[in-house]
Amino acid sequence: MFIQPRGHSSASEAGEDRLVVCDCETLGLCVRALAPFAAGEVLDRFNGEVSADLLQHSLQVSPGMHVHDTRFVGYLSHGCEPNCRLDMERFELVALSDIDAGEVLAIDYAATEDVLYRQFACHCAAQHCRAWITGRAENANEEGRRFLDGQAKPLKS
């Protein structure tokens, strides 16, 4: 099943020439803004193939259903204090804060995903970084529990 954003016949009109997928040495594939965006602005209206397949670059659109083969949003980075959010009703990428040209776009994966394709350690450096990223409906797996145990700070006496 292929989806289109509501009220739009051209799927990529919002992100065309304003976003780019990059291969960054520290992040891997990511999306950068090519122009500045104001908080609340729509950066992209996305579409893609919807199926029950949970893939590395898919996004959950409803319980058990995921969109993949999107132009940009499947390559968004994770941030515990993200600069963007996904509106899965309108199929839009929306700026949460002002974004400068060249800035890497990040969403909180737990905001849309019940279960991640793969859990991972986070190094986003946000003040409230969760350190280990899971979907909103799953607990840290064994690797995550070990990682988090190693990150535990000693109790103050």
TrEMBL record:
Residues 17-110 form the SET domain. PANTHER family: HISTONE-LYSINE N-METHYLTRANSFERASE-RELATED. Residues 118-134 form the Post-SET domain. GO terms for molecular function: transferase activity. The keyword Repeat does not apply. SUPFAM superfamilies: SET domain. Keywords: S-adenosyl-L-methionine, Transferase. The keyword S-adenosyl-L-methionine applies. Gene3D superfamilies: SET domain (2.170.270.10). PROSITE patterns: POST_SET, SET. It comes from Novosphingobium pentaromativorans US6-1. This is Nuclear protein SET.
